[in-house]
């Protein structure tokens, strides 16, 4: 995979510029997640950023050439759920279509929070304290955009570890 923008749309270009500005502040991971979340709220793209939405799964939309961040779209089929996991870096996500339920866990895997994120909702987090699971609880396809503080094409995934 290449380390250049894969879907060069005006909508995405505006978001990329905003994320560059946020990352350039060089805040700590929590601070960067907050700044990137502000940019995503301002520049949340439409579901059209993933084309027809017919393809499943993980679509890399942009990787910053210096590896400082990646933008990924995820298409979730009804009932699709992740394993409980955490991340290698800060992460910000926004729901473009549908509903995504996020369950948060503490280090002992006790459920400590649940939120139903609707289209337009944006959230972010940074390790530690980022153990979660995501589930499309609605009857239709959900689409979300995720921004990670790493080059996901180089590291293979934003997931640090999975929990049973």
TrEMBL record:
Gene3D superfamilies given in the database record: Jelly Rolls
Domain of life: Bacteria
Matches recorded under Pfam families: CDO_I (PF05995)
InterPro entries: CDO_1, RmlC-like_jellyroll, RmlC_Cupin_sf
Keyword line: Dioxygenase, Iron, Metal-binding, Oxidoreductase
Protein family: Belongs to the cysteine dioxygenase family.
Name of the protein: Cysteine dioxygenase
Organism in which the protein naturally occurs: Phytohabitans aurantiacus
């Amino acid at each position: 995979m290449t380390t250049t923008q894969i879907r060069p749309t005006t909508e995405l270009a505006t978001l990329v510029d905003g994320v560059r500005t946020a990352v350039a502040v060089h805040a700590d991971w929590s601070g960067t997640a907050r700044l990137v979340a502000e940019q995503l709220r301002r520049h949340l793209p439409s579901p059209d950023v993933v084309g027809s939405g017919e393809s499943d799964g993980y679509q890399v939309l942009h990787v910053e050439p210096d590896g400082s961040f990646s933008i990924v779209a995820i298409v979730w089929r009804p009932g699709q759920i992740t394993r409980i996991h955490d991340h290698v870096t800060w992460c910000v996500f926004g729901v473009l279509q549908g509903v995504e339920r996020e369950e948060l866990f503490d280090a002992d895997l006790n459920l400590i929070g649940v939120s139903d994120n609707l289209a337009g909702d944006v959230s972010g987090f940074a390790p530690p304290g980022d153990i979660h699971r995501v589930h499309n609880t609605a009857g239709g396809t959900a689409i979300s955009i995720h921004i990670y503080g790493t080059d996901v094409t180089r590291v293979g995934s934003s997931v640090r570890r999975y929990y049973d």
